[in-house]
Amino acid sequence: MELRINGQQVTVPDTITTIEELIHHFKLKNRTIMVEQNHTILRKEEHEKAAVENGDTIELVQFVGGG
Fold this sequence. Notes:
Elements: E1 2-5, E2 8-11, H1 19-25, E3 33-37, E4 40-42, E5 57-62
Parallel strand pairs: 1-5
Antiparallel strand pairs: 1-2, 3-4, 3-5
């Protein structure tokens, strides 16, 4: 499946069907991230049910602390 993730064209396995599975695929499960799918910001509660489809545009933004 072809996705545009953070501005890059990326191929992911066709077995990935949800945003939650995509997060696991990129090993971001235990990180604080914001997900935007096709210009819509998703709440964390939506990740499990939000379907990923070929051609989707996804932004994965990781929050980093510092000072």
